[in-house]
Design brief:
Elements: H1 29-41, H2 48-61, E1 65-69, H3 72-82, E2 90-94, E3 111-115, E4 137-143, H4 152-162, E5 165-169, E6 177-178, E7 181-182, E8 189-193, E9 206-210, H5 213-223, H6 234-237, H7 253-284, E10 290-292, E11 310-313, H8 323-332, H9 380-384, E12 389-391, H10 400-415, H11 417-420
Parallel strand pairs: 2-3, 2-4, 4-5, 5-8
Antiparallel strand pairs: 1-9, 6-7, 8-9, 10-11, 11-12
Helix pairs in contact: 1-7, 2-7, 3-5, 7-10
The structure holds pyridoxal-5'-phosphate.
C-alpha cells in the first residue's frame, strides 16, 4: 500500500519549494530602467512608446495593426465596436470565460448568446455553435481558455459559411500555437489582456490586433481621440476629434515600456513554463481520474504560457469521489488545488434579470426580438464543469525534482482515493469564481 495520506495523518509530500517556482510577474532590471526612463522624461501620457510596442507586438503575430489599450477589457470593447456591433446585434460567446469576453457588448446595445464548451478543451464547442447563429449574429467570440487553443479550424469554417466575424480573446494564451499558427491570427480581430497576472505580464494593459484597416480605424475613433490624425476613412474623419464611444482607452506608457522588454524575455519564459508543465503532465500520464487540458502531442498546438492551468477531473474513474474531497486531500499534501474554474456566465443575474440601462426590461433583452436567455440545462457541459476541473500549480521554473514531488502528491491521492470516499462532502456547493481568483 502506498504511503499514508497527509489528510489522514500521514506525511505531507511537498515541503518548502524554491521561491521563484511561482514568482510572478518577473520584473527585471531592464524593465525598471525602461519605466524610470518614461518617468524621468515625463512621458506617462504620451503615445510614442506605446506605438513602438504596438508595432513590435503586431509584428510578432504578423498582423498589420496593433492598438494598445489601458486593459484587455477595453481592447475587446474596441474590437466589438471595430466590427460594427451595435443595437440588437448578437455575439456568441462560450459561457465559461472571464466576463470581459462578452460583457462590454451591452454598452453597444448588443447582446450575448451563450454557447457550450467542449469538455476536453474547455473552449467553445464548435458543434454547439452553428445552431445558435441567427440573422442577427454579428460575431463569435472565441476564448483560448487557460492556454488551450480553441478548435479554430472548425470555428473558422462555420464563421465563413455563415458570414459572421470572429473575435479572438487571447487573454489566456499569449504565444500559444494552433496547428503551428499563433492564436490571435485566425479571426478578423483579437483582443489580449496584458495585466500582470497573465502569462504575458506588463501591468494593467491590453492590445487589439487586426489586419483590417476599417476595424483598426473604428477602434481608434471609439476610444482614442488623441489619434484622430490617424483616421483616413471619410465617414470617421468627418467626425474626428472626439471619441465616438465617449471612452478614453490609451495605454499607459510605463506599461508600454515594460511590454517592450517583456517581448524580449517572453519566448524564454514561455519555453521554460511549457517544459515544466509538460513534464508535470508527462509524469501523470495514465493516472486514473485526471487528464491534462493540453492538446495532443505532435498536433502543432501548444499551451503558450499555460495561464491559470487546470486539470480535468473524472470522478467516474474514482468511484464518484468528489472534486471537493480530491482537492482537500491534495491541499493536505501541500499541493494547491482548488475545485472549479470561471462560473457559467449565462447563470448570473446580470445576464438574466438586471436592467442596467433602465430599458424597462433585462439589458440582455433590451434590443432583441426574442428571449434568448438560456434555459437551465441547455448548456450541460458549462453548467456541470465545476465538478470536473481543478486548478493546478502554475510552474514558472523547470525544477524537475520539485515538480516530481507535485506529481507524486497527485499519484498518492489517486492511489488512496477509496479511503477518501467515507467523509466525502460531495460536489462543491458554489464552485468556481466570477473572475477574481487568488493565485499562488
Ligand atoms: C483577464 C481577461 C480579460 C480582461 O482583461 P483585463 O486586462 O483584466 O481588462 C478578458 N478576457 C479574459 C478571458 C481574461 O481572462
Amino acid at each position: 500500500m502506498a504511503e499514508k495520506l497527509a489528510l489522514l495523518g500521514g506525511r505531507k509530500t511537498i515541503g518548502r519549494v524554491p521561491a521563484d517556482l511561482f514568482r510572478w510577474p518577473v520584473v527585471n532590471k531592464e524593465m525598471e530602467k525602461a519605466v524610470l526612463n518614461v518617468l524621468r522624461a515625463g512621458k506617462m501620457s504620451g503615445s510614442d512608446i506605446t506605438m513602438e510596442f504596438e508595432k513590435a507586438f503586431a509584428a510578432w503575430h504578423g498582423r498589420r495593426y496593433g492598438l494598445g489599450a489601458n486593459n484587455g477589457t477595453a481592447a475587446l470593447h474596441c474590437a466589438m465596436f471595430g466590427l460594427g456591433i451595435g443595437r440588437g446585434d448578437e455575439v456568441i460567446c462560450p459561457s465559461i470565460t472571464y466576463w470581459a469576453s462578452c460583457l462590454p457588448v451591452f454598452s453597444l446595445g448588443g447582446t450575448v448568446v451563450f454557447a457550450d464548451i467542449d469538455p476536453e478543451t474547455l473552449c467553445l464547442d464548435p458543434d454547439d455553435l452553428e445552431h445558435r447563429i441567427t440573422d442577427r449574429t454579428k460575431a463569435v467570440i472565441v476564448v483560448h481558455y487557460c492556454g488551450r487553443p480553441a478548435e479554430m479550424k472548425k470555428i473558422m469554417a462555420i464563421s465563413r459559411k455563415k458570414g459572421v466575424a470572429v473575435i479572438e480573446d487571447v487573454s489566456h494564451a499569449h504565444g500559444a500555437l494552433y496547428q503551428g499558427k499563433l492564436v490571435g491570427t485566425f479571426g478578423q480581430v483579437a483582443g489580449f489582456s496584458l495585466m500582470s497576472g497573465k502569462s504575458f505580464a506588463v501591468g494593467e494593459a491590453g492590445i487589439l490586433l487586426t489586419d483590417d484597416r476599417l476595424i483598426y480605424e473604428r477602434a481608434v475613433a471609439f476610444g482614442y481621440y488623441e489619434r484622430s490624425d490617424q483616421l483616413t476613412l471619410p465617414e470617421l474623419k468627418a467626425a474626428a476629434g472626439l471619441p465616438w464611444g465617449g471612452y478614453k482607452y490609451r495605454m499607459h506608457q510605463m506599461s508600454s515600456a515594460v511590454g517592450l522588454v517583456q517581448l524580449k524575455k517572453y519566448p524564454e519564459e514561455m519555453a521554460e513554463i511549457d517544459r515544466a508543465m509538460n513534464y508535470f503532465w508527462d509524469l501523470l500520464e495514465g493516472t486514473p481520474g485526471i487528464r491534462s487540458q493540453r492538446p495532443p502531442k505532435n498536433s502543432g498546438s501548444t499551451m503558450g504560457g499555460w495561464y491559470n492551468p487546470l486539470g480535468l477531473y473524472r470522478p467516474e474513474e474514482l468511484d464518484g469521489l468528489s472534486v471537493t474531497r480530491f482537492c482537500q486531500a491534495l491541499q493536505a499534501e501541500g499541493f494547491p488545488a482548488r475545485p472549479g474554474c470561471n462560473k457559467a456566465l449565462h447563470l448570473h443575474p446580470l445576464f438574466r434579470t438586471v436592467d442596467v440601462y433602465r430599458d424597462g426590461c433585462p439589458t440582455r433583452l433590451a434590443f432583441s426580438r426574442r428571449d434568448l436567455r438560456e434555459k437551465l440545462g441547455s448548456l450541460p457541459v458549462a453548467e456541470g464543469i465545476q465538478k470536473r476541473v481543478f486548478s493546478i500549480p502554475w510552474f514558472k521554473k523547470f525544477y524537475p525534482e520539485v515538480i516530481e514531488r507535485y506529481a507524486a502528491a497527485v499519484k498518492k491521492v489517486v492511489a488512496n482515493y477509496h479511503l477518501l470516499l467515507k467523509d466525502d462532502p460531495g460536489d462543491p456547493k458554489d464552485g468556481g469564481n466570477w473572475g477574481l481568483t487568488f493565485r499562488i
